[in-house]
Amino acid sequence: MIMDFYFILLFFIFPIIAVYIYNKLFSSVLSPTIPSFLIIALLTLAYVGTISFYFHLDSFSYKIGIDNKEHIMYMLFANIWTISSVILGFIYAKYVLKMGTIESNYANSRQLNLNENIIIFILFLIGITVLYMYLSKVPQIALLVALSDSDESIDMARNLMGNSFGGNWHWYKLYGNQMLVLITFIYFASWLIKKNIFNFTLFFTSFLVSSFAVLSIAKKSQFVWLIIGLLIVYTMIKLKGRINVRYLLISIISIFVFLYITYSLFIPSYEGKLFLILEKILSRISIGLSGAYFIFDYIPKENDFLLGSTFPNPGGILPHTPFNLNVKLFEFVHPEMLELDIVGNKNSVFWMEAYANFGVFGILILPFIVGLIIYFISHVLNRLEKTPIVIGTIVFLMLHYKDISITGISSYVIDIKLFFLVVPLLLAMLMVNLKLHKRKVIV
What we know:
The protein has 443 residues and is mostly helical. It has 20 helices and no strands.
């Protein structure tokens, strides 16, 4: 009973203190920047779920064995430390390294020039081509299966399109899915800055294509994040980087209505069952925490501390074989899935992987470094000229780095989205504009 009291006290007081400190030292946590969005993601996706675990409000998690209150209390402490340390990283970057304030108001951005429009359109055509190549290789499109088949068939189709696809799935996903999402953000920003039929046609076409791309694997969450990204773009341009409560509430209600409709359409067993759908949504919000719960049973009881072996080893230059923690943890929690040949992931907040590799020491150190790097990336983008490409990139990276709250840090060591999509795009923009500037000077 005493532990319950302390849990409730900590659970409700900490977010208030964290948000208060952030608002005092930075712009409002509701002003859309990469640092503020990461804090919101950590609070909603990695923190809120602890209370549903602790009091067994989530029957889905309780059924798979999430019932040890002591483990959940450890998770709460780890989340509190993680969020605090990330904010400390932000503070160090802004006040000690003098990186300054990250701006969220992009109302005075300029329109895409001709050269930028040509580059984005070529990338759009490449994205469509890659998407077509990918879909032609999969045996079934999960979206079509979801419209006509059972829940088990949907899971199998998703698996065949994802973890079991093999080959170059991550590259197909990057250029035939994620690049299309980035282009949609860019075209939407372009249309908001200058509303004409040309810009609207480009945006609407890219939205239809990217929507199909993210929904093809029948994962509703990706489409929700696409819509959230568009709302953030709108906020940065039309609301001058300020979210009001009315706008926020309307957005949340709209998303819940969409989720209710899609759960009813895609999962026959959920049709018309409001409370079951709400419980499922709650479960999806806290799903990123489930791995963190089981990590205390898996490491070091079933496996020794991994000492960095979850990190990538490009070309085998390092003295370790990469250990896929998310897959191994899934097999540990769901051994029955092995018989069905389903390869799953048990993702979780990034401190789980830090603990699996280096124990408590990893949890103590890594969040500060993450905060420092995130603020540095935001600082670099903040110094670029305000254009639809920069706006789209910022929002794209907001959604990219928010996944730190539900997955490990190893996938960010060699950040494929950053180094193979964002950086080349920004460099191309800078080079094109530099050549354009030189021509003007010569003339």
